[in-house]
Amino acid sequence: MTTNLSVIVGGGGVGKTTTAAALALARARAGAKALVITVDPARRLADALGVSVGSDTSRVQIDGVSLHARMPDSRRSVEQFADWLFAERPEVGKRVRDNPLYRELADALVGMHEMVCVAIVNQELASGDYDEVVLDTAPSRHALEFIDYPTRLVQMLEARTLRWIASMASYAGVSLADQPRGRGLLAWGKRRIQALLGKVAGNLALSDVSALFQDLIQVRERWLELLGQVQQRLDSEQTRYLVVSAPGDASLADAEYLLLELSRRSRRTHGVFVNRAVERVPAWLTDLDPGQDELLAAVHRDYLAEYQARASRTAHARERIARAAGPDVPLKVLPALPTSDPRVILSGLADVLAERQAP
Question: Which domain holds residue 43?
Answer without folding.
Answer: 4-355
